[in-house]
Amino acid sequence: MSSDNALWRAVIQQALTDAVVPLSRVTAIRLEQMRAREWFIQPNRDFEEVCGLAGLEPDQVRDRARKAIDAAEATPVTDKRRRHKLYELRGKQMTLDEWARVTGINKVTIYDRLKRGWTIEAALTTPAHQRARKRQQHTPGVGPHPSSFAPDRRHSLAQESLKTEFFR
Fold first, then answer.
1. How, if at all, do strands 92-94 and 87-89 pair?
2. Which of 5, 47, 56, 147 is the most buried (most CB within 10 A)?
C-alpha cells in the first residue's frame, strides 16, 4: 500500500467516524454528520474516486459503511447531561426546583439547609424566615437638601460637579 492509498483510506475512515457518532445537538456539526452519512449511502462520483485512490472497492466500502451507520442509528443514545438529584419526602421524589415551587421555599434556602445537615423533611417543612426590611423614617414635607449630593437616577455626576463649582 502506497502513502497515497493510506492518506485516502484515512479520509474514508474520518468520514465514517463522522457518520457513525451520535448526531450532535449543534446544528452545524449535525449537518456535517448527516452529509458524511449521505456521502456513504447516496451514489456519487466523489465517493467512487476516493475509494479508487484508496485502492478499495466502492461497493464493499458502501456496504460496510451502511451497516456501521445502521448499527449506530439503532444504538440508543444515552443522555450525558447532568441529571438533577431527586429528593424524596413522603413517597414523592422531586428536584430542588420542583420542591421549591411546591413548598414556596427558595431553592437556595433548601439547598443550604441540606448542606448544613438538615433532614429533607426539616428542610422542606420548616418555613423560611422573612427578613424584615428596615423602613426609612420619612417626615412629610421634609427631605434631603437639594444641594446635597445623593447619587441616583435623577442626577448625573457631571451635573453635581457643576452645581458644586457654581455654588462655591
1. antiparallel
2. 47
User: How far is the C-alpha of 159 from the C-alpha of 164, rounded, in Å?
Assistant: 9
Which one, of 112, 111, 116, lies nearest residue 87 by Cα?
111
In contact, 33 and 17? CB cutoff 8 Å: no
Domain ranges, residue 55:
3-74
The pLDDT of 132-139, averaged and rounded, is 62
Residue 145 within a domain: no
Give the three-class secondary structure for 57. coil
Report the C-alpha dihedral over residues 151, 157, 162, 164, rounded to 10 degrees: 40
Give the span between the Cα atoms of 53 and 6, in whole angstroms: 9
Q: Quick count: other Cβ atoms within 10 Å of Cβ 64?
A: 13
- Confidence (pTM): 0.46
Which residues, other chains included, contact 120 with Cβ-Cβ below 8 Å and sequence gap of 6+? 87, 88, 89, 114
Residue 23 — pLDDT band, cuts 50, 70, 90?
confident
Residue with cell 439503532: 74
Both 68 and 91 in one domain: the answer is no
Residue from 109, 112, 113 nearest 130 by CA? 109
Taking CA atoms, 69 is separated from 16, 23, 40, 66, 74, in Å, by: 8, 11, 9, 5, 9
